[in-house]
Fold this sequence. Notes:
Blueprint: E1 8-11, H1 13-17, H2 27-39, E2 44-49, H3 62-70, E3 83-87, H4 91-102, E4 109-115, H5 118-125, H6 129-145, E5 149-155, H7 168-180, E6 185-190, H8 197-210, E7 217-221, H9 228-238, E8 242-245, E9 257-258, E10 261-262, H10 282-291, H11 300-314, H12 321-325
Parallel strand pairs: 1-8, 2-3, 3-4, 4-5, 5-6, 6-7, 7-8
Antiparallel strand pairs: 9-10
Helix pairs in contact: 2-3, 2-11, 4-6, 8-9, 10-11
Amino acid sequence: MKYPKKVKVSDITVRDGFQHEESIIPTEAKLWVAEQLILSGYKNIEVTNFGNPKGMPQFNDADELMKRLKNSKKVNSLIDEVEITAVTIRERAIERTIEARKEGYGPDRILLMVSTSESHHKKNSGLSLEEYWKMSEKYIKKANDVGIKVNGTVSTIWGCPIEGPTEINKALEFTKRWLDIGAVDVEHADHDGSASPDRVYNYFSRVLDAIPDTSKHIAHFHTTRGWGLANVLAALQAGITNYESTLGGIGGQPANFVNGIPVAGTGSYYYKDPGITGLISTEDMLVMFDEMGIETGVDIDKILETGKIVEKIVGRRLRSESIKNGRIPKFLKGEK
């Protein structure tokens, strides 16, 4: 097996992880998780969505959370070294982050998103793909003008929960298009767990043949069908060095029912069991990397402790096997 000996990891629990929760997570809890991630060594975290909170009330505290994180005494000496990302699907959300940036608390990086499936894209954004590309080209420049980097996400690469099979060549085309119009990197997303390891390896091999700079590519896998870490291994074999995950493997499609109230979200859930839509587990991925001799720069023991508290925050057992079983011992009994 050939794979990188060092990878970059990003944790997106506070945004993608919590967006599927059907109860509001207190701002104080979100802040605590973000702080613990930074104290554990993370240099890249995703913390909120600046979209309309009427549709996603989980993020009605976007401004407050960003202000408190930027001014946190716990991570004061580290915050300038950490890239904070927020999701901004449409124009108003981008404008909000630009204003927040001007006021000194806005994110360092924002995320725009297209799907190779037209119907999935329309459901997420409300625009056609061509309309969205025009909007993105205009607003990437506006964001860059105030010092905000932009990530371009490509979704439904390996399949769509609405349409079914998708054309993988379209994802390659969209990747190049994002970079051509000014995105600093591309998140290659399997948002519903459609990817199988063989197709992941094939796709990322083609991506790196076309655009060899590994810093431009981020792998984002859900483990709806249990293939998440197998897909990480396939991406490693292809040469991908950047990965996203969530504590406990939580997350998924934005909740459409929050605190007992139906909300818009992105509409009805596409999944047969909306309780298992989450991403790959941060804890399990880090432990696997460690056993493979792959450097991440993250304090794994601290992350395992943080993961236990996240289970208490959401009030249920999550999907990390490493939380349950711990790390593999490094020494014989009695040795130090």
